[in-house]
Specification:
heterotetramer; A alpha/beta (514); B mainly alpha (370); C alpha/beta (414); D mainly alpha (337); B: mainly alpha; ABC transporter involved in vitamin B12 uptake, BtuC; 14 helices; D: mainly alpha; 16 helices
Chain lengths: 514, 370, 414, 337
């Protein structure tokens, strides 16, 4: 691809939220027809950077120039009108409306004052054809689409703004392998048209395949920007990680004993995961790594009875169980810290105390009095900083909210704690106390199973690492494995470490059913 | 709870988190700033205004009579509160009251021996109606608005059909005493109407119940059903119990109204909307998750005081609707803001991520930084 | 760039209006509807001066005077069967309807949503049984409008086109609104009987009603005025606005109260006893209440109990011949009067059908007697109606009908 | 494969229920010795649809946008008395009276919309309050019937084209306009968007208050049209005509029965009309069978709940997998489970 003109130039972007700097002095340069890969760990500032470009946030300092002119947006629509479209991780689609209606929402073509549905469908058709997409009808309801198809609609919507710049936040996160190919094709089409693309992904394979240039962010700072050709897997991972993790993660508490199996799965599966064999012992902290959409959360939901397993067996402390609901799972001694504390973890309008007692009250109401006595001490030991326990949790910081979530589960005295992204979106100090908590839980004979997108966390905290890919356990790695190894196993690229037995990337059953 | 002993790190000197953000006085003050607290002030203001307009209303006996007759609607509001706070509606309340009134009239009749068994039966009927509302709403997933609307039509029609539209007559006085009788010669108060005692007892019971796991779980379900489900809450049973409480409260209202007003099929007409109005006036959030049960009762008393004031001021009874309409719109508009103001901690230092309460559009609301 | 959707909304509705206007003119020009009504305008403006575009004014001096006179008029017929009595006046010749065949009667009922209507409805059904046994009436088809004007118009239209009716009986839900529909029924040439509330037309074969609201108002207001001092306060408890038979009661009473210096204040209660009790309680707190006037009896008990609960002297009171009031009246011994809005008119309508079938002339406006029950007569009526439910009416006039007294005691709505 | 196996939409189910009720109704009517399809009966059924239909169309718009309108019965009554008073029996006054009535309704709708969108008051409370306000005004200023519609205006109700009453055609016309509005105007598209997700709508550059206000205005105006048609039918204005028909709750029931989500964002006018028609057929058949009026209410109540239950559960079950189901395959697995 010939070197082309710079369409967007950002300089010295800095952004902090309430004293916590999430982005510091970052420069960015997007060229027409080129793909810029933006990589970094979770919390490195990628999303914030994207949101600044999209007009969701405005930077504290720094400038953004579009085709040489300084711009600043206060609303996403302004960014869109200026030619910057963003495809976010969460779909911003109306499930009950058709593909065409979603794409042209707010800009429906009109003739004689009426929405020209025919035109809209033709435009959509053309748009999709132009992107090389077939088999998607403009009139289809979005709800009836697969996630990959929804993703395509999102991208088509972004393109339809005549965007000169499209940023995509992990667009392949929820896609299966073959669906990714479709996306690659679309990106190829777009760059051929001279669109500049900002591409955020954890999948290194993709980064190398798609990107012309790669910018690495770490802790809000720009580590490097260089041509993709000058980097390789190992080097990129080193740049992304680039710090000693051992100091940050506490060691197991002395005297922690790994005991009997606390949780065992044999060939377990539901609509989302399949053939999971897993043994978790008391006193262990086991991490599950895997890309988004690899079925990590769904595995937890299977164990916890949210989407009960339909196949295989499960036992807790040797007793066979099959929880059909979270309630049953909790009774069996499980606890689950959910991925999204606001949507599924807390009742934001209730007080800290009420939230901390939420599970006990729901499942073991008779233990409420005891739990109520324990909560203040528990909250202090978690270092929750709050004015009082009658403060509503909506006014707490993310880290403190997360600690309240932990408190509400600890009051039930579980045998097995499932933690889905336990440190997402919280500050370093809070992270550290959550790590300490995990260790002390293990010391007390609790089994901890953790899902995390942050590789250092998985590697630093886990006694063993399980890696998931495409709804299956792809393998197991020992503590202290390198991030490269984990990533390779998770993405299924290049040489797999000898300790693993990689599952075939495309399970034959899927092929048949599809 | 023995687990979180952080032996690995020497804990910095921690002070336990206090139970309350403010002293008792401060908390009361903060409470008054919320709509749930403000309704008590509103009721007091209305009472003063009424007494000022006509000093006779300051007579303890008159106040007692007033509170006695407000008991049925206050109890209904308490019942409705449970349903609303769990995020649902109960439109069948008036029909349940009508049913109970007619049942009392027809089944007890002139036989004092039937008072107890029929009362038990009435409460069973109330519980059954609530159970049906709850199950249809939670398990069949029909919106509660529709379920209870259907129940309202069906129950009202059924009772009229079975009884010929009118009750045989008032039940024996022993039964009516529940809603009409009073303890005489009470110091200061002159006398105490039974309905007031029942209201006080039920209000205390309701307050205690809201402090029990059931009540807290109900608030949590109304606030965030998803989170409650994952916390092991049996959502269907919880909400069904709320519906049962609502119908039982309506049944008690009905029993009191038989005493207060006598048997008539139109007793209870429109109670569902009056009760919802009272609950909303009490600052309880439609959609669930917020509000105090006593405020709902206070809302009912404030509403009735308002009507009395209008009577005293010789406002035409036809204009009462208009006043009621204005009041509830204003109350709810203010409430949305009031809860924030009253519950926010003083000083903003701790309110770190208030940026997360989205004021600007934030696509990707659920994830933090990736 | 975007046009205001508000504007667009207005355009859309204006377009709807255009459609509306366009259609009606088109069709009225070249497709006069078959059932468009003869010419309602003339008939109405002719005999209903009150029904102009102005607000409905309920007090009409001429009607007041007429009913005042009728209170003391002589009624034709046997006093033992008051439901067949009438005041002498114009008669409708029904010879053309005379037949041997059992008739199909179509009854468009406003509703059975209050005890008075329920009692009448039961009586009517028992009368129907009697007439079916004597083969006068073959079948009566009833449509119940559930208190909705719109529904009742549809019901009448349905009867006209689909009912195969020999006789129409209409108990109008409201006066003015039902007039065109009644006129359409008249146009079929079949006998039309209207009872209870009236209509603004005289196309009917017979309009059956007791003397009327003014008479009620005169009886009751005179009674209260006689038993009270000038300046005494009377609380008037009214059910609902806008029903002629109720409005005229108050119109007459209000005038008399004013003439006699009685301080009367009126409330609408929807017949809800708890509302009634609250109103009285509040009034008692404000000051003495010496009299209670009611435009219907149900709820009277609650009114009396409000006095009892407040511990004050019972008022002078007028209720109705509903059993609940009669019983409470006797129990408390208050000074009272039970005016009557004769419930037996429900059976008179069917008996009128019998006369029509026989070709006997019937009064065009069949004014039934309407005599209040006084304290002296009370005991008799209580005794006769022993065992009846509270919602029953003492002067229901069905003692000679099949099923008496069981049917009324059971109060099973047909 | 998915498209071939696509289950019935809720509109499809409602229409199926309507067809079923028509068949059952025809049979029951025949048992009573009547003809369901006679012109008189068709007229009765269609007339039964007209008024509730108009109101339900407006209610659909309001519910689609995520609100509710409990003030419709009072708007109906108010417009009927105001227009009748203005007409005062004079044909020349018809146009100003109609415009006045529609204008007043639009103002009421505007007030509803403003309260809902800017004061953030739940539609339930905002319109309940508005209903009470109007009801107080009506009760204080109008005792009994009021005004008079001139003959020319009354012809609207009296006119029929074949067995089809003109009022029904007007209702259909409004329905058609509403359908066009929903499908062919930006306002309509934005109405769905705001009802489905205000956040997504805002991100797409839509001012979310506009559809909310417009829906409320249109709903009130349609209620006014219903009030005018009732005036044409009754010949006089009536301050209680709206409450007599229970149009608030019945219209909501019809809308939900028609497959529109009470939470908004999904539904259509056709479903609502089918819902209204189901009620009309039900009432018609119960009328023919001379069902006890009290039992009528029982049956209505049962039918409302039962009919909504038929698809309410399915709709909700199919919803959650929409964003997080990983692949089409798994979705299929989940559904066959």
């Amino acid at each position: 691809m010939p070197a082309t003109s710079v369409v967007l130039q950002a300089r010295g972007l800095t952004k902090s939220f309430v004293g916590h700097t999430v982005l510091e002095d970052v420069d960015l340069e997007l060229r027409a027809g080129e793909v810029l890969g933006l990589v970094g760990e979770n919390g490195a500032g990628k999303s914030t950077l994207m949101k600044i470009l999209a007009g969701v946030h405005s930077p504290d300092s720094g400038t953004v120039e579009l085709n040489g002119e300084a711009v600043s947006f206060s609303h996403p629509v302004q960014a869109q009108q200026a030619g910057i479209s963003t495809v976010f991780q969460e779909f911003n689609l109306l499930p009950e409306r058709s593909v065409a209606e979603n794409i042209y929402l707010g800009r429906e073509p009109r003739r004689l004052g009426l929405v020209d549905v025919g035109q809209m469908h033709r435009d959509t058709e053309e748009l999709l054809t132009g992107l090389g997409v077939t088999g998607l009808r403009p009139g289809q309801r979005v709800r009836s689409l697969s996630v990959a198809e929804q993703q395509i609609v999102e991208i088509a919507k972004a393109v339809s703004y005549d965007a000169r710049i499209i940023s995509m936040d992990e667009p392949t996160a929820a896609l299966a392998e073959h669906e990714v190919e479709l996306l690659y094709g679309i990106i190829g089409t777009l760059t051929a048209r001279g669109v500049a693309i900002l591409y955020v992904s954890h999948r290194l394979k993709e980064i190398f395949r798609l990107c012309d240039t790669i910018t690495v962010l770490k802790d809000g700072r720009q580590v490097t920007t260089q041509p993709a050709s000058s980097l390789d897997d190992a080097e990129l991972v080193r740049l992304m990680v680039g710090r000693s993790i051992s100091s940050f993660f506490p060691d197991p508490v002395e005297g922690t004993v790994v005991g009997e199996p606390a949780l065992e799965l044999r060939d377990a599966g539901n609509g989302y995961v399949d053939g999971v064999d897993l043994t978790l012992r008391a006193g262990e902290v086991v991490g599950i790594a895997g890309l988004q959409g690899s079925g990590r959360t769904e595995l937890f939901e299977g164990i916890f009875g949210v989407r009960p397993f339909t196949r295989g067996t499960m036992s807790i402390a040797g007793t066979q169980v099959r929880p059909r609901s979270p309630r049953a799972a909790i009774r069996a001694g499980l606890a689950m810290v959910t991925e999204d504390r606001k949507a599924t973890g807390l009742a934001l309008n209730q007080t800290i105390l009420d939230n901390a007692l939420g599970v006990v009250r729901a499942v073991f109401p008779r233990r409420t009095a005891q739990a109520r006595r324990d909560v203040p001490g528990l909250l202090s030991s978690l270092e929750v900083s709050a004015r009082a326990t009658d403060q509503e949790v909506q006014f707490l910081s993310g880290g403190n909210q997360q600690k309240v979530v932990l408190a509400r589960w600890l009051t039930t005295e579980p045998r097995v704690v499932l933690m889905d992204e336990p440190t997402r979106g919280i500050d370093v100090g809070a992270k550290h106390s959550i790590y300490e908590l995990m260790r002390s839980l293990a010391a007390d004979g609790v089994a901890v199973l953790m899902v995390s997108s942050e590789l250092p966390e998985v590697i630093g905290m886990s006694d063993r690492i399980l890696v998931m890919r495409d709804g299956r356990l792809a393998g197991e790695l020992p503590a202290g494995s390198s991030e490269e190894t984990v990533l390779q196993l998770a993405t299924g690229v290049t040489v797999a470490p000898t300790t693993t037995t990689p599952a075939p990337t495309d399970a034959p059953t899927e092929e048949v059913a599809r | 709870m023995s687990t979180p002993v952080t032996t690995s790190t020497p804990a910095p000197a921690r002070t336990a988190i206090p139970a309350h953000q403010r002293g008792l006085g401060g908390r009361l003050l903060a409470a008054v700033l919320t709509p749930g607290g403000a309704v008590f002030v509103l009721a007091a203001v209305l009472l003063v205004a009424t007494i000022q307009a006509n000093p006779n209303f300051g007579d303890p006996g008159v106040i007692m009579l007033f509170l006695g007759r407000t008991a049925p609607i206050a109890i209904a509001a308490i019942g409705q509160y449970y349903v609303i706070v769990s995020g649902e509606f109960d439109l069948s309340m008036g029909a349940v009251i009508g049913t109970q009134v007619v049942l009392a009239g027809n089944m007890i009749g002139e036989d004092p021996d039937k008072v107890v068994p029929v009362t038990v039966l009435m409460l069973l009927v109330g519980a059954a109606v609530g159970f049906a509302n709850g199950v249809l709403t939670t398990l069949l997933k029909v919106p509660s608005f529709i379920v209870t609307l259907g129940m309202m039509l069906a129950l009202g029609g059924l009772v009229s059909y079975l009884t010929g539209g009118a009750a045989t007559g008032n039940p024996v006085d022993e039964f009516r005493e529940i809603g009409r009788g009073r303890f005489e010669n009470v110091p200061v108060l002159e006398f105490l109407p039974y309905p007031l005692i029942i209201l006080v007892v039920l209000a205390i019971a309701a307050t205690l119940l809201m402090r029990r796991p059931f009540g807290r779980n109900l608030l949590a379900v109304g606030d965030n059903p998803e989170s409650a489900e994952r916390s092991g809450t049996s959502v269907w049973w919880l909400k069904t119990r709320a519906f049962m409480i609502s119908s039982l409260a309506a049944s008690v209202s009905g029993i009191l109204l038989v005493g207060y007003a006598g048997v008539h099929p139109s007793v209870g007409d429109g109670y569902e909307f009056t009760a919802i109005t009272a609950v909303v006036l009490g600052g309880v959030l439609l959609g669930g998750g917020r509000g105090w049960v006593l405020s709902a009762a206070a809302g009912a008393i404030a509403l009735e005081l308002l009507f009395t004031l209008l009577t005293v001021k010789e406002v035409e009874s036809t204009w009462r609707d208009t006043v009621q309409g204005v009041i509830i719109i204003v109350a709810v508009a203010v409430a949305a803001r009031g809860w924030q103001a009253g519950r926010r901690p003083r000083g903003s230092a701790r309110r770190a991520p208030s940026t997360r309460i989205p004021t600007t559009p934030t696509p990707g609301t659920t994830n933090g930084d990736n | 760039m975007r046009k205001s959707p508000l504007l667009r909304g207005a355009v859309v509705s204006a377009a709807a209006l255009l459609v509306l206007a366009a259609c009606s003119t088109d069709d009225s020009v070249d497709d006069p509807a078959p059932d468009a009504g003869a010419d309602p305008e003339t008939s109405e403006s002719a005999d209903a001066p009150a029904d102009s575009s102005a607000d409905t004014e309920w007090f009409v001096q001429a009607d007041f005077d007429e009913q005042d006179a009728q209170r003391s008029a002589t009624f034709e017929g046997d006093e033992a069967t008051p439901w067949l009595q009438y005041i002498d006046g114009p008669m409708t010749d029904t010879k053309k309807y005379a037949t041997q065949e059992a008739q199909k009667v179509c009854f468009a009922n406003a509703s059975i949503s209050n005890p008075w209507r329920q009692t009448g409805w039961i009586t009517m059904n028992q009368q129907l049984k009697a007439l079916q046994d004597s083969n006068v009436i073959g079948e009566m088809e009833t449509r119940d409008a559930q208190d909705d004007d719109n529904t009742q118009i549809a019901d009448i239209d349905y009867f006209i086109t689909e009912g195969n009716c020999d006789v129409f009986i209409i108990s109008p839900n409201s006066t003015a609104a039902m007039t065109p529909a009644v006129e359409r029924a008249c146009e079929t040439g079949k006998p039309v009987i209207v009872f209870d509330r009236g209509v603004n037309t005289d196309c009917y074969t017979s309009f059956i009603h007791p003397i009327g609201g003014y008479a009620w108002g005169i009886d009751t207001a005179n009674f209260l005025s006689d038993n009270l001092e000038e300046g005494d306060k009377v609380v008037a408890l009214r059910i609902l606005p806008g029903v002629d038979v109720l409005e005229t009661r108050w119109a007459a009473a209000e005038k008399i109260f004013k003439d006699n210096g009685i301080d009367a204040v009126d409330y609408f209660t929807g017949a809800d006893p708890s509302k009634i009790k609250q109103i009285i309680s509040d009034e008692l707190v404000k000051g003495d209440v010496k009299g209670v006037w009611m435009d219907a009896g149900d709820g009277a008990v609650a009114a009396i109990e409000a006095f009892e609960d407040a511990g004050v002297d019972l008022p002078v009171m007028t209720g109705e011949d509903e059993m609940s009031f009669l019983r409470k009246w006797e129990e408390t011994g208050l000074t009272g009067l039970a005016p009557v809005y004769s419930n037996f008119q429900w059976r008179t309508t069917l008996l009128a059908v019998e006369k029509i079938v026989k070709g006997e002339a019937i009064p065009t406006e069949w004014v039934l007697p309407q005599t209040p029950i006084t304290e002296d007569e009370r005991a008799d009526f209580l005794e006769e109606n022993d065992g009846m439910p509270d919602g029953h009416y003492a002067k229901f006039g069905g003692e000679d009908l099949p099923g008496y007294p069981q049917v009324w005691q059971d109060r099973k709505i047909p | 494969m998915r498209s071939r196996l696509q289950p019935l939409t809720s509109t499809g189910i409602v229409v199926a229920v309507l067809v079923l009720s028509l068949v059952v109704g025809a049979i029951l009517t025949a048992v009573e010795g009547r003809n369901f399809l006679s012109s008189g009966n068709i007229d009765a059924v269609l007339t039964g649809c007209s008024i509730l239909g108009l109101i339900a169309i407006g209610q659909t718009l309001v519910i689609l946008v995520g609100s509710l309108d409990l003030s419709v019965p009072f708007v109906v009554s108010l417009t009927s008395v105001v227009a009748a008073g203005q007409m005062a029996g004079e044909p020349a006054n018809v146009v100003p009276a109609v415009l006045l009535a529609l204008g007043i309704a639009a103002v009421i709708g505007l007030a509803n919309g403003l309260v809902v969108s800017f004061l953030k008051v739940h539609g339930f409370i905002a319109t309940l309050g508005m209903g009470l306000i109007i009801s107080g005004y009506l009760g204080s200023n109008y005792q009994g019937s009021h005004g008079l519609a001139p003959r020319s205006f009354r012809l609207i109700d009296a006119t029929q084209i074949g067995p089809v009453p003109l009022t029904f055609l007007i209702m259909l016309g409004c329905a058609l306009l509403a359908i066009v509005m929903l499908r062919r105007t930006r306002l309509g598209h934005h109405l769905y968007a705001v009802g489905g997700s205000p956040e997504v709508a805002r991100l797409s550059g839509i001012r979310t208050s506009v559809p909310v206000i417009a829906a409320h205005v249109l709903c009130s105006v349609l209620a006014a049209v219903a009030g005018l048609l009732l005036l044409s039918r009754l010949s006089v204005g009536s301050p209680t005509i709206g409450s007599q028909g229970d149009y608030d709750l019945m219209s909501i029931a019809a809308v939900v029965l028609g497959g529109t989500l009470l939470a908004g964002g999904k539904g259509n006018i056709v479903g609502t009309l089918a819902g209204v028609a189901i009620f009309a057929v039900l009432d018609n058949v119960m009328g023919v069978m001379q069902v006890n009026p009290f039992l009528k209410d029982v049956i209505r109540g049962l039918v409302i709940v039962a009919a909504v239950a038929v698809y309410a559960g399915r709709e909700i079950d199919r919803r959650p997998a929409r964003f997080d189901r990983p692949t089409g395959l798994d979705a299929v697995l989940q559904e066959t489970k």
